[in-house]
Amino acid sequence: MSKKLYLLIAASVLMCGLLLAAVLVPPITATPARVLTKEPAGRPADMVWVPGGVFEMGTDEYLGPGDANPDRLKLDEHPAHNVELDSFWMDATPVTNREFAKFVEQTGYKTFAERQLTKDDFASRGADVSLFKENVINPGSMCFNPAFNKQQLVTGVPGWEHQVWKIVDGADWRHPDGPESSVEKLLDHPVVHIAWEDAASYCEWAGKRLPTEAEFEYASRSGGKDLKYPWGEEFLPDGKYMANFWQGEFPTDRRNEDGFLTTSPVKSFPPNALGLYDIAGNVWEWCSDLYAADYYAHSPRINPKGPSESFDPQQPGVVVRVQRGGSFLCNVNNCTGYRTRARGRGEVASSSYHNGFRCVVDPSMLAAYHERQQQIAAFKPTGTPVAPGQ
């Protein structure tokens, strides 16, 4: 065989190998062949189809503390890692007071904030009860305290934001600012003062489930696109507010530039490219995952569901779960939870007036979902409540 012929054959083999590799090794934006991307018939009401795929979750960027890191990127967003997700449907909006009221009417459910609990109740849910002064805790929840002492406020220390919070007896989903308030005129606002178990109970009743953290980030980024915010790269495109967050310096300068000081009715701001509303801002939203600051370093690639145990370095020993999306209290000097990669967390044994949730359904749940919805539709006020799990 001549040297020239040998080189031609070798080049041909190399080219074939490269072409084969290009076919067999998909780019990060590819959709795996096993993922169902075509939406099945029978879409759940008021939900958005999120086709599965592969995306790079998290980030490798970190600029340190202070002004050098204006977006407040955090180390728990590290490292960037590839995640492969199956398709699912997601609620177009957070669950509203109107929707939650229907759940309560049919089940008689009482939220965590509405119950009179003991120290043991909190301890069994992984709370730190070492500072509890009483054994019996009155019903109530955490609210922002607009009357905090500005002169005594100390910023720049870990957890300084909590100086402006207070537990309000009688605050719950029906009474977001305390016993004298009401949701009567807030029926299309996101339900708040929701503990994780409340959100999970609603989802079970509705034939749905909470999203995983990976599903939430993927949906927020319109199918895993490289987006800083759900709407793009600019915080205020053309000076327009795209989500409900705090305007002014938190917590001393409270403006009303977008027309909302607290929650806003769902769909008050534009949706992302998938059609999801309030996927950033308005209320923090519970995910199904336990939270661990280092989880991304050993997260599975396919459909990650969070760690088996939670760990928050700021409160070791306390059980916390993931929250995503930020709230009307987020801004650049407090938190930037409205970023698509930003991670939040909350104590399982807690609720507050800026946390809510939305649900998802995956195709394997579709038949059970429709069966449950038929039961809910057939409910009569004098009949037997449709309780979660029945």
From TrEMBL:
* Secretion signal span: 1-21
- Superkingdom, taxonomy of origin: Bacteria
Query: Gene3D superfamilies from the entry?
Result: paralog of FGE (formylglycine-generating enzyme)
What is any Pfam family matched here?
A: FGE-sulfatase
- What SUPFAM superfamilies does the record tag this protein with? C-type lectin-like (SSF56436)
Residue ranges of every copy of the Sulfatase-modifying factor enzyme-like domain listed in the record:
45-360
Q: Which UniProt keywords apply?
A: Signal
A GO molecular function for this record? formylglycine-generating oxidase activity
Name this protein carries in UniProt: Formylglycine-generating enzyme, required for sulfatase activity, contains SUMF1/FGE domain
* Organism, scientific name: Planctomicrobium piriforme
